[in-house]
TrEMBL record:
Gene Ontology annotations of biological process type: phospholipid metabolic process
Name assigned to this protein: Uncharacterized protein
GO MF annotation: an example: phospholipase activity
Signal peptide residues on this chain, from the entry's feature table: 1-16
Annotated keywords: Coiled coil, Signal
Domain of life assignment: Eukaryota
Coiled coil: 299-326
A Pfam family per the record: Lipase_GDSL
Entry-linked InterPro entries: GDSL, Lipase_GDSL_AS, PLB1, SGNH_hydro_sf
The organism of origin for this protein: Mucor saturninus
Signal as UniProt keyword: yes
Length: 402
């Protein structure tokens, strides 16, 4: 009995330490509001959902508004006589690991909704569009697996607690801004130097960088007399450039997707008419994203910042393509800019916070990113319809990731 009591005490202490390591504890700000992506914030969000979630009219992960097309791309052999590949002549079977750095969207925060009490705010990393490894999911690693590559060792499966610092090669952290990307890359470098992942160090890696939403979301937090440095486009650009340089020098042999952001105003428009979402996005209740929850003028200002961020990502792509670096490629992938998130109301948003993409959205996002990777620059800019979405397959005419 004494042994059981001792074990219970030890396990309790260990669990408390795990919780302390996993979550960020923070006091309310000067306005009495709890900052997003803190432990207290997730608890409040959970409370709202468990109390009022029945008022949420969004669909859960089992009932997507439109079915996604089957992934039926057939693998084949390219006889292109290129022995020593450079970063802009990579084929799907050249990629040996898939990596993500970014924020809560890449961490899969709140992706599956309508399952109270606690599972509503978990991070579903195994289902994330860019890096998830759960069997049967629409993700880039699972698409690449059709080409004979076993990349399961690095692709995360399952879930993590909110605010975890990554799982396997998904290094995204909920709440991260571009200022925190360096820490994510440092973790990635440590992992690639570890015994578990060192085999990937000298192989080709596909890295998806999706960041910026949290930088935009601080734009409208009081005081709003000047543009906060956290949201400044010049600082955004420089932070991403520094991270790209670290990947180039310390990670090596990589092709980096710089993924465009979608406008935040459409998230607000999609919430109108849903009683639960209107409650959660009421700024007097909690902070989800200050600019979304502000007035129309603030939302339009945030959209302009998003457009400028995307312009800077495109600028970085052009900058690196002129450097003629054999083992490092950068490509701006604009597909998400054309995602009409407001058109479908809550069908593609998390049922817990009405902000993050749900599983249905992640399926669409995986196809958009895949299509961007095998389309020429002009095709990438074309509008698309979710109702008629198709998958672009690599071919002998277009075999390379770009």
């Amino acid at each position: 009995m004494h042994i059981l009591l001792l074990l219970s005490t030890l396990l309790g202490s260990l669990f408390a330490q795990v919780i302390q390591d996993q979550f960020v504890f923070q006091q309310p700000d000067v306005n009495g509001m709890i900052p997003p992506f803190t432990y207290e914030w997730t608890q409040l969000l959970e409370q709202f959902h468990n109390t009022l979630g029945s008022k949420n009219t969004s669909k859960d992960d089992l009932a997507c508004l439109y079915p996604v097309p089957a992934f039926e791309c057939e693998p084949f052999i390219w006889n292109d006589a290129i022995v020593d590949r450079d970063a802009y002549h990579l084929r799907p079977n050249d990629i040996k690991s898939v990596i993500a750095i970014g924020d809560s969207i890449s961490a899969g925060f709140g992706m599956i909704s309508g399952r109270p009490p606690f599972s509503t705010i978990l991070e579903y990393r195994g289902k994330v569009f860019s890096v998830g490894g759960d069997e049967g999911e629409y993700t880039i690693p699972n698409f690449l697996a059709r080409y004979g590559q076993d990349i399961s060792k690095g692709a995360p499966t399952g879930i993590t607690l909110p605010l975890s610092r990554g799982k396997q090669l998904n290094n995204a952290v909920s709440g991260a801004k571009t200022q925190e990307l360096n820490a994510e890359v440092s973790r990635l470098i440590r992992m690639l130097n570890s015994e578990k992942y060192k085999a990937y160090k000298d192989e080709w890696k596909l890295i998806t960088v999706f960041i910026g939403a949290n930088n935009v979301c601080v734009l409208c937090e009081p005081p709003v007399t000047t543009l906060p440095g956290l949201a400044d486009a010049d600082i955004f650009e420089e932070n991403v450039r520094q991270v790209l340089e670290r990947i180039r020098t310390d990670v090596g042999k990589s092709f980096v997707n710089l993924v465009a952001l979608f406008n935040v105003s459409s998230v607000y428009e999609a919430s109108r008419g849903d009683p639960y979402c209107e409650f959660v996005l009421d700024p007097s209740h909690m902070v989800i994203c200050s600019c979304i929850q502000g007035d129309e003028k603030q939302r339009r200002a945030a959209d302009r910042v998003v457009n400028e961020y995307n312009t800077r990502l495109e600028k970085l792509e052009k900058e690196y393509k002129t450097k003629d670096i054999m083992e490092f490629g950068v490509s701006y992938q604009p597909g998400f800019k054309q995602f009409p998130v407001g058109k479908y109301k809550q069908s593609y948003f998390s049922g817990v916070d009405c902000f993050h993409p749900n599983k249905c959205a992640n399926q669409v996002m995986s196809i958009l990113l895949w299509n961007n990777m095998f389309s020429d620059p002009e095709e990438k800019k074309k509008e698309f319809s979710i109702e008629t979405l198709e998958i672009t397959c690599p071919s002998s005419k277009r075999p390379y990731i770009q």
